[in-house]
Structures are given as structure tokens and as C-alpha cells.
Amino acid sequence: MFKCFNKSLSAKAQSRLYHSKSGIFGYNPEKSRPIDQHYKIPQRVQEARNQQSNAFRWIEAYRKFGHKLATVDSVNFEQRITSIEELNPEFYGLKRNEKVNTTGMVFTTSNESTIHEIEEILKDVYCKNVSAEFFYVQNTEEKEWLSENYEKILQETVSKGEKKQIAELLIKSQAFDNFLATKFPTVKRYGGEGAESMMAFFERVFELCATDDVKHVVLGMPHRGRNNLLTTMLNVRPAKFFKKFQGNSEFSIDSGAMGDVASHYDASVGIERNGKKVHVSMLRNPSHLEAVNPVSMGKTRSKQWSLGDYSYGKTGGNTPSKVLNIQLHGDAAYPGQGVNQECLMMAYVPHFDVGGSIHMVVNNQIGFTTPAKRGRSTDYTTDLAKSVEAPVFHVNGDDPEILMQVTKLAYEYQRKFQKDVFIDLNCFRRWGHNELDDPTFTNPALYEIVNNRRSVPDLYAEKLIQSNVLTADDANKIRDDYMDYLNKELSATSTYEPEKTYFQQQWTGFQVAPNSITYWDTGLDYSLLSYIGRQSVSYPKHFNIHPHLQKTHVGGRLKKLQEGGKIDWATAEALAIGSLLYQGYNVRLSGEDVGRGTFSHRHAMLVDQKLNEMYIPLNDLDGGLGGRLEIAHSILSEEAVLGFEYGMAIDNPNNLIIWEAQFGDFANGAQIIIDNFIATGETKWMQSNGMVMLLPHGYDGAASEHSSCRMERFLQLTDSKENSPDSDNVNLQIVNPSTPAQYYHVLRRQMVRDFRKPLIVVAPKILLRLSDAASQYSDFQPGTQFKNIIGDVRADPSKVTKVILCSGKHYYNLDAERTKQNIDNVAIIRVESLVPFPIHEIQEEVKKYSNARKFIWSQEESRNAGAWSFVRPRFEYLIGKPLSYVGRAEGSTTATGDGKTHRMEAEAILANSFTS
Predict the structure, then answer these.
(1) Are 344 and 388 contained in the same domain?
(2) Which of 128, 153, 178 is the last residue of a domain?
(3) Cβ–Cβ contacts within 10 Å for residue 224, how many?
């Protein structure tokens, strides 16, 4: 199947373009957030504080220490402090009956109050069912805003209508859990029992977003209460869950998806509040619960990119983004999983800043079965937030009204300052880790309290009944009506058919990959490519380029382009990316110092040597459809950064997302993202993505951590079949290209196809500058494409008695040895695509060598690594000939750290390849 890319893009294709050349994409330095905006406290406020300094010190003490006395523990399990000397007004020489001018001191409805009156206010807002930590915030304006608005909002009243709304949500949430417990008693459902108040959080934040015309809410959430939210607020039919609990798939039979547990379901839905709509995306999550958080940030960033919304990532007075990221966490997982610290460290980094996230920790006060105090070394589960000076609001889970008020405060803070903010919802788990677990084995004292206390919805309904806001009949009707609805949904499972939720919205027009290997014309006219190549090394007239780059990078590339030969790896990459930009696709290249490249070969971003300003030449292409290149220098993280990039890739198929590891096996740090999202996302969830992972690989004497990308791990993760011809319909593509042109074609192929698959590139190091590996201009012209194998054009088939198969950089070592020994009876076949495995093309190539009696797989890697274990069964089963191994012996490490040993091993591999 051969397809040619149509250079005449449709109106739909053109509509997705981002045309602006301003901001972080152009000739501007990367802007960091200012530490302080030099905010000045109004003079009248400062004078009042100076005149009443003791009173102000006392009030500030409540803001600093009040949380230590707060009654936020909904089960009162841990003994708490009952008094703090600094909170006693007498400690400052104050008398309770003396009056204080409250201007700029504390928020009250009166300009003058007694110390006693102020004390009651401070106790109510800082020491009861809610408290706050923000005294560590260094920005003066933020701290002043937080003090005033926290005290103001918590003195506001919740209307009767809002109270009824809360009651309805809590009662429905409880009814859903009770229904499941009755109808599906042996199913783990990870219900919301004990944490039902979280519904008040979601209701308020969705309402505020709709009112503010926020376009998208992107939500990353673990299991706890997830199904309750999906069914009560995000319009997912309970029948979908019931059918799953009955043992059926959530996908149609012909989708090819394996499906996942119900507690991993997602939603993408428009919801309406007060006559306005907001779109909510709840992401699929694996059981590595916190791993979804960077994915949610990446999806948020992608939506901001699509909207042209670049006002995020700046502090003070700027219009906030129309996309909001919300993350929910578990109390044990949040401090325990390192990905959360990585996410916080990305929060305000250019190219990863999403304008602040709202976090809520559902604090069960127990992790799996581990008591809270054994699950962390900090006082609070949210103490990581202090590392980025994010304010934290601690709330008693039995008080959903306070939670709703605090949600408003958190939302307004995030909108104004575009920074992260945390809510710590102190609640409990009614049944332990799941409904089939017995937590009394390890936590008898805690669960004696839990088992003898009433539910949150019942307590709240009773409170409203006693205050005449709700009647018992009202509460019963809400529950009974919802139970009737759930029973109808249960009855409907026999006729319910899963709705198609994939290849919609921005994915419309894309499809599942075909059950064959397809071929795509990714060549372009060399005059266009030459222009793109020249532009890739251009810079403004007064730009102070590094003198070494002027000579080697700029001069060298221009010469190669003019001659049309010896196109190196970095130039081929620039041609691929530049041509995609020209055709309207956006490209994002992310990783540690990727602008320069680990091996100082790329220089896709130039830095003015005097002004320290950065310039991306490919963002100034003339003509074309205006795609943009984003160079995202990441923090020294793999898991969170790769998760972020995956989130961007699943959101928009028209953006090419590339992540480059500094060295190939550094991807080990992101294995959770690879295993649970990249390799399995489509199989489990029908969630396609076309992201690219570049993993520098090659045995050059650099020892274990800098030699191997562990390609064997990626090969093991594929669903490529051993006993049948392969196809494009695999979960991963894995290539080990040996020429720059091959790399060029495989990058372009990612975008011009009508389906998306993750691409793992076993990327080179030495080949980046190896002249023998260079490509000619003819390798890029129309009619050319990525070659799954590269046959031997030097060997005479009639003389060949041995065929060596290899992959990637190793070919050049073998070819050099063949030339050195003047061997003419050995052919070398390069297998460029490992997945899909091109068995038909290998069969055709092998047929040329009818006199061959020996077939060898030669590799640099150890026998228990590399591609050997993957290639052998496919070759022997489908070709029908035995395949022998040449390479390093089995090893527990990927490579020796001794230079002499490395050379001996390398020489032995080459010798044995031709003599064995």
C-alpha cells in the first residue's frame, strides 16, 4: 500500500494552524516568573499596622500558626495541640476589651472591633473546620491578597439553594455506592464513601469555570470517587459501569481494544452551569495513580496551544488561560510518588507552565493499609506544595459548605496569580483500600472510629433538616428517585451498546492502522528542502552568533546543502521538521538542552552571545502554512516530562511531539509512563498518539548508562506477532535507522499518515557526524520513503555464501571490517524497522542469495539484550532458515566500563561475524 502526501492541504488542515510568531517561539528570551513584583502596601494600611504593631503581630500569628489548632480531622484520630502561646493576645500585651482599627489588619464588616471580636473571627476562619498555610509565600501581593480574601470568603454565607445543591450531590453519590454494594458486592469499585464532600468541590469549580467562560477543564484523578463523579456530574451513563461489572467490555467488539477496569474510565463532555457551557476532560489513569498528573498538564498545555492562549505562565494582572488543569491526589501517594515533586518543579518552567493547577488531596489519613504517620516524614501530606510557595487550605471533609467556599478562594487565587494552589480534604475511607479489604487487620483503632460514625451525606442532610433548609421527605425523594434511575440503567444493560468515544473532535478523520505495512511518499522537491535547510541556519542581522557555530554549524550546513551530498543527521532532522512546519504542522521538541542537543549537533535554537536571547530559525520560514516549532528545555526529569509530552500527543494529532532522552537508557526513569500510557494506551483505551521518543544508543566504550537504550524492553512491550506477517496495526513502532535520510522519512511519515502510532527511534551518537552515514539529496526527493530494510548493493549475489543481518550503527562497523579483510562472499542486510517487522521484504532480499548457507544476526548488545531474542523466532518461523547469533555474551549490565575490554569485545564481534 503506497500513499503520496497531498501537498495541497484542505481548509480543515489550514484551520488548525497557529500563525503568531511572538512570545516563546520567536526571537525572545525565555521569560521566568519574577520572584516579587515589588508590590507596595498602601500607606494608610502600613500606618495602621505601625500604630498597632502588637495587634498586627498577634493577627499574623493566627495566619502562621492557626492551622495547628484547626479541627480539620474528620475522625479525630490523632491527638492535636489545644493551645499555642503566640495566639494569646495577652502574649502581646493586648486586652480583649480594647478596640483596634481593622483597616489593613483583618477582614471584618466593621472598621473598628475589639480584640475579643477579632479573636472570634480568627478562631472561626483559622482554627475550626478549615485552616490555611500561606505564610511561606514570599510575594507580598499574594500574601496580602490571600489574607484578605481568605478571611472575607470564609465569612460569607452559603445560600439555601447552594446547600440543597450540595445535599443532592452527596446523597446521589452515596446512593450510587450503596446501589453498587447491593448489586455487585464482589466488585472493587473504589467508591467515594467518606469523601463525598469532594462533589461540592467539583460543583463549585465547574460553575466558576462556566461563569468565567473557561473553555476546557482537564482533570487528572485517581480511583477514589471517580465513578461517582462520572455518573453524577459528567454525564456517563451508569449502564456503562453496570455492563462492565457484569464482565463486558466498554468498547465494541470490532474496536480491537482490550479495555480496562471501570475505575480507569474517562470522560470528554460539555456540561452546563447557569446557562453557560464548559468542556471537561477526565483523563484515563492507570493504577500508578499519580502518573496521570503530568499527562493532565501536557493535555492542558496542548489545548492552550490550540487556542493560541499564551497568557498563562505570567504573574500578576494578566488574563488567565481559558484552560484549567485540576489534579486530585491520594494522601499517601502525593508525598510518596516522586512524579509529584517533578510536576511541581515543572509548574513555572517555560514551555511547561500551564498557568497554575488546582490540586485537591483526598486525605484518607491512611495509605493502602499504612497509617498516615508511617507514610511520610512531613507534618502534612501537602507539604511538597511549600517548595513552590503554593498556598494550602486544610478542610474537614464533614463540612462540604466550607469546602465549597475554599474552592472559590482557590479558584480565584489561581485565576489571579496563575499559580498552583492546594486543598487538603481531610476525610476517611469507609471500607479500607477497596470494598473487599479489611482494614482492621492493621488499623483497628482508626476503624473502630470509622465504623461507629455516620456517613458524611447523612450528617449533612440531618444538619439541613434541623435548620429547615431541607425536609426528611426531600432527602428521601432525592435518594429514591436516583435509585429508581439506577435500577432503570441496570435493566438497560442488556440493550446498552458502548458509544464510540475515539476518533472524534480534533481526531476526526483519523483511523485505526491497517493490518498491513503501508508505504508513504515522504520525499519533497529538493529546492524547497534546500530553502528550509538554509533558513535553519539563518539569523537576524545583528545577532551575535557563537563564532564556532558560525564556522562549523552555519558554514558547514550551507556547503553541504549547496553540494547536495553528505547530508548529515542534524541537517536531515532540520529538513524533516522544517518541511512539516511548512505544511502547517506544529512540532515540539522536548528534553534536557534539546535546542543544542546532547552531542552539540542540533543547534535548532541559537543563543545571542551578548544578549543571551534565543532564536529559532525555523520559525521564520516564508511561505507555507505557518506551523510552529517549540523547543522545550526540560527540567532534569524523565517521568514527569515524558508524561507531559504524552498528554500533549493524545490531545492533538496534528502536533508532532518529540521527546529526546539525554542518553537512551535515561528513559528508564520514565518506565511507568512507557508501560502504562505509551505502550498500552491504544490497546486499553483506544487512545492513539503519535509521539516520538529519541533514545541515543550505541556501544562506543561509554560504559553501562551511556550505551544502550534497552531496545529489548521496548521490543518486549510490543504486540508484534512472532508467527505471522507484521502490520502497521501494532502498539509501538521501533526503528533503528542507519542514515540521515531514513531519519528524515520516518519523522515525516509520523504526520502524513492517517493514523498515529508512538515511534521509538533507537537514535545514533557516532552516526551524527560519520561521513560514511551521510545521505545524498536524491534520498529526499519525491517518490522516496522510509525503507524498512536496506539491502546490500555491494555484494554479488552469486558469490554470497553468508548473510549477516544487523540494525543501525552496527552496520558501519561490519562494512568497514568486510572492506578491511576484502571479503566478497558475505552480504549485509540492514533491518531498519524492527516493529513492524518487515518479513516480506526480508524474504525478498534473502531470495537473492540462493547460495547462502549461513544466516547470522550480529549485534553490539549482549545476548540477553538488543534485538536478537525478538528477531530470531520471526526469522526462523517465517523465513524457515536457522539464524545464528554473534554479539556480546549475556550480561547483567549493558556494557563494560573498561576501555580495553570494550575494544576486545568489539573486535571479537566483528571477527566472529565473518568467521563463525
Answers:
(1) yes
(2) 153
(3) 27
**What's the predicted TM-score (pTM) here?**
0.94
Burial class (CB in 10 A: 0-12, 13-18, 19+), 181: middle
Residue 675 gets which letter from DSSP? I
Looking at 37-41, 83-87, 570-574, which range is the least confident one? 37-41
d(C-alpha 181, C-alpha 191), whole Å: 10
d(CA 117, CA 120): 5
Domain residue limits at 485: 165-499
Alpha carbon distance 118, 630 (integer Å): 52
Euclidean distance between CA atoms 613 and 903, whole angstroms: 43
Residue 23 is assigned to a structural domain of this protein: no
Q: What is the CATH number of the domain that holds 610?
A: 3.40.50.12470
What is the length of the chain?
Answer: 916
Q: Which of 252, 300, 264, 249 is nearest to 279 (CA)?
A: 300
Q: Find the CATH number of the domain harbouring 194.
A: 3.40.50.970
- HEC letters along 584-609: CCEEEEEECCCCCCCCCCCCCCEECC
Using the structure block, give the residue that is written with the C-alpha cell 545476548.
863
The reply to whether 758 and 795 lie within a common domain is no
- Distances in Å between the Cα of 698 and the Cα atoms of 151, 377, 555, 764, 884 are 60, 42, 28, 6, 22
Q: What is the mean pLDDT of residues 442-452?
A: 87
The grid coordinates listed for 53 are: 504593631
Domain count, the chain: 4
Each residue's pLDDT tens digit, 807-833: 999 999 999 999 999 999 999 999 999
Spell out the residues 6+ positions from residue 253 whose beta carbon is closer than 8 angstroms to its own. none
375: number of Cβ within 10 Å: 20
